[in-house]
């Protein structure tokens, strides 16, 4: 049990700071947020003069499953592999999770890579030590998909579909149509085993997408975003737009109700031919101003975990309010992943995933992370606190 006292607390329920204490109970939950809390047998953490924030949420990552020498989250043997599941590709002891903790990332959305048009299920995992099941927050959280240069680059080398954007759009539509037909056959069978279609795990993984229980999480850039939104409208599914370079040219398209979030970045990916010709961090403010939920990502370990707060800083440099920018890696990311009942803001009964900085990190480049708490346990601490 802990009491974090005297801090400047940004709960992320709104854009205001409050002077408050936070009581963390033995169950790893936030029990109370108020002034002058005292609790018997609780360890006191003095946060006077410090900034207290919710744990950061990385809405798009591959840590634990993608390495320099291996890619356990990229089954690049077929352009449509919906039957894949990130749960089985993650190494929970990967050192990248410890690096994430030291950078304030308490939760990550871990997804298949973007070599395939349809890549498989993603999960949401906490960064603390322990087994995957102990740290698992949501499974599945999404069905990964990709457009553009990644699947084209993989399969054009083999002289097979998809070699073009036409082929990618066809495969994405074809898969969703097959899921629709599969669902229709199951419905008409009325649980009669003799009438049920042959079980297909890949099509089963698409059912929660068609039922709007999880989104299609699409790696996409620039004009490919238009294709993704058109497909979302055609099949009445929810999508998230991931990477989203060039989003500032497509605000009207991205305001569509089927777009449940835009996850921008990473900034160090650089420019490349075709759809990768624009990096526009001003879109974070532009999207937020228009009521479109926006977040940023590390894409780790493709880029390092410390990049997450740098991306927040880039959005501020392009005119975004520092607190609105922090929302991108706290409550916005949690809402996009549909885990905001547990994480993303500091509220009573939510998980005690808490950070303490010596300054506001979206405003002061000298800000240092002093403490990371996950599920009510201190998992990282600097000597200064």
Structure description:
- The chain is globular and about 65 Å long.
- It has helices spanning 96-102, 132-135, 149-156, 165-189, 201-204, 207-210, 224-235, 251-254, 282-289, 307-317, 322-327, 331-336; strands at residues 2-9, 18-24, 30-34, 43-46, 51-54, 56-61, 105-110, 118-126, 136-146, 216-220, 239-243, 259-264, 294-296, 354-357, 369-374, 377-381.
- The strands form two sheets. Strands 1, 2, 3, 4, 5, 14, 15 and 16 form an eight-stranded mixed β-sheet that branches.
- By secondary structure, the chain is α/β, with parallel strands linked by helices.
- A hairpin with a 2-residue loop joins strand 15 (369-374) and strand 16.
- The chain has two domains: 1-54 and 345-385, Urease, subunit C, domain 1 (Roll); 56-343, Metal-dependent hydrolases (TIM Barrel), CATH 3.20.20.140.
- The mean pLDDT is 95.
- It has twelve helices and 16 strands.
Which key terms come to mind for this protein?
12 helices, Urease, subunit C, domain 1, 385 residues, eight-stranded mixed sheet, alpha/beta, TIM Barrel
Summarize the structure.
With about 375 residues, the protein is an alpha/beta fold. It has helices spanning about 95-100, 130-135, 150-155, 165-190, 200-205, 205-210, 225-235, 250-255, 280-290, 305-315, 320-325, 330-335; strands at about 1-10, 20-25, 30-35, 45, 50-55, 55-60, 105-110, 120-125, 135-145, 215-220, 240-245, 260-265, 295, 355, 370-375, 375-380. The chain is globular.
């Amino acid at each position: 049990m802990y009491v974090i006292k005297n801090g400047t607390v940004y709960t992320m329920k709104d854009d205001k700071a409050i002077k408050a204490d936070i009581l963390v109970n033995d169950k790893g939950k936030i029990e109370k947020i108020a002034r002058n809390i005292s609790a018997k047998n609780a360890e006191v953490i003095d946060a006077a003069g410090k900034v207290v924030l919710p744990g950061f949420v990385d809405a798009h990552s591959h840590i634990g499953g993608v390495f320099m020498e291996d890619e356990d989250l990229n089954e690049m043997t077929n352009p449509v592999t919906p039957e894949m599941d990130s749960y089985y590709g993650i190494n929970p002891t990967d050192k990248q999770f410890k690096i994430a903790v030291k950078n304030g990332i308490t939760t990550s959305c871990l997804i298949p890579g973007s070599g395939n048009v349809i890549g498989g299920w993603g999960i949401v995992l906490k960064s603390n030590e322990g087994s995957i099941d102990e740290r698992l927050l949501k499974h599945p959280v999404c069905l990964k998909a990709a457009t553009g240069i990644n699947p084209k680059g993989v399969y054009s080398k083999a002289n097979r579909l998809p070699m073009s954007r036409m082929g990618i759009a066809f495969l994405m539509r074809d898969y969703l149509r097959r899921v629709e037909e599969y669902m229709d056959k199951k419905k008409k069978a009325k649980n009669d085993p003799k009438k049920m279609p042959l079980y297909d795990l890949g099509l089963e993984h698409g059912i929660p997408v068609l039922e709007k229980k999880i989104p299609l999480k699409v790696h996409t850039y620039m004009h490919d975003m238009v294709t993704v939104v058109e497909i979302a409208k055609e099949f009445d599914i929810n999508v998230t737009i991931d990477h989203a370079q060039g989003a500032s040219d497509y605000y009207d398209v991205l305001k569509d109700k089927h777009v449940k979030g835009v996850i921008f970045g990473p900034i160090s990916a650089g420019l490349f031919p075709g759809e990768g010709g624009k990096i526009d961090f001003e879109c974070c403010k532009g999207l937020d101003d228009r009521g479109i939920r926006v977040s940023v990502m590390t894409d780790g370990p493709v880029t390092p975990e410390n990049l997450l707060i740098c991306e927040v800083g880039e959005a501020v440099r392009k005119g975004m309010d520092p607190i609105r920018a922090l929302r991108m890696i706290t409550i916005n990311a949690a809402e996009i992943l549909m885990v905001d009942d547990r994480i993303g803001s500091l509220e009573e009964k939510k998980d005690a995933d808490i950070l303490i900085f010596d300054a506001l990190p979206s405003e002061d480049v000298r800000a240092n992370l002093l403490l990371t708490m996950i599920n009510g346990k201190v998992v990282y601490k600097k000597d200064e606190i």
